[in-house]
Amino acid sequence: MKTVIVVAGTRPEIIKMAPVIRALQRNKIPFTFVHCGQHYDYNMSQQFIEELALPPPDIAFKIKIASPAAQTARIMLNMADLLKKTAPVLVLVEGDTNSVLAAALAANKHGISVGHVEAGLRSFDLRMPEEHNRRLTDHVSEHLFAPTRRAEANLKNENVWGKIYVTGNTVIDAVHQHLPIAKKKSRILEEIRFERFALATAHRAENVDNLLVLKNFMEAFAESPLPIVYPMHPRTKKQLHKSGLYSKVKKSRNIQILPPVGYLDFLVLMKKCELIITDSGGIQEEATAPCIKKPIIVIRLSTERPEAVEAGFATVAGTEKNGILSAIDSALTSRKQLPSESPFGDGKAAEKITEIVKTLF
Ligand code: UD1
Ligand code: UDP
Q1: What is the CATH number of the domain that holds 79?
Q2: Could you read off the pLDDT of 37-71 as tens digits, one per residue?
Q3: Residue 282 in contact with residue 15, Cβ under 8 Å?
Q4: Could you tell me the distance, in angstroms and rounded to a whole number, from the CA of residue 39 to the centre of ligand 1?
């Protein structure tokens, strides 16, 4: 039977593929759901599959912790075996992780079409592994689902050979679909020590693997005029332990560290907070959803989501402590009115993508 392979390897891929999986189900398009195992802790993988009521993956690779190259190679090998057996019509990948590149390359080597959801983002920051992954994936994809006109323009500038469709970002669909459920089910606010707070996340390799930047972040959080609720990514936790900083951060009365939380809890935290401070990609998009609508301080040197900056939601504050603190101050003083529309679409991206996938059957 003809099938589409839907690939997810990390937390954000599960969240952003969830609306696509549901749209495929609604349209009765047969698919095989593959989890690449790049993220493997319960609270970085299975938790999301359960909470978002997704079908269990048909195939789950076991990728032992490895260097980025070995991780990519192992996923490619696993994928190659699967492609030999299933010969799908299309391999659908989402985003810019090592899982995405590995699955896309494996499909390309087997002469199988790749569909890239969230194609065309560019940070122009070549320190980022994600920038390489997304560029390479875009250039082996036959179907490029660009979230915005700017992403489409980036792809056209690079003369990609695949066909480009502007669809919006499926993360906006995910926020619309899950916030009402989150409001009913999440109990996370009962655990939060502060009435008013900023929500922070940080995990980018070029930030948290750099001790100076990691220290800047922790000091900025400790001195922030608004206390910080901080669900901590395992990569960052590992780096804080390695550098001996963890216990100091844990003791700060201005920071409440949480383990990585489930999607429903995270949505409720985004809804309740006054401000978001993050180096995440997906969170920059989610904060612009009309039902969330929060200012975002991007603790990075660049962003591949300039649409959030242009629309007035995001400020790229850099990675220095003082720059971050002054961005927090200005966000709290200006309290500017934010747009009532997201630059990343209207929450119907997955349906648009599925309509295109349908034509391949
Ligand atoms: C990866 C992606 C990044 C994405 C992020 C989403 C790449 C190059 N990076 O970064 O683009 O934004 O996922 O969160 O693909 N770890 C655990 N448990 C887990 C997963 C990871 O302990 O379930 C720890 C391990 O020590 C691992 C480290 O985190 O070595 C980094 O994990 P990895 O998947 O390589 O990169 P992320 O930083 O998660
Ligand atoms: N997220 C979550 N729990 C957390 C932190 C993030 O559910 O503790 C969600 C968040 O809402 C977003 C996604 O995970 O949808 C972002 O993942 P991450 O920041 O790890 O990756 P990126 O988007 O930067 O690739």
Answers
A1: 3.40.50.2000
A2: 999 999 999 999 999 999 999 999 999 888 999 99
A3: yes
A4: 6
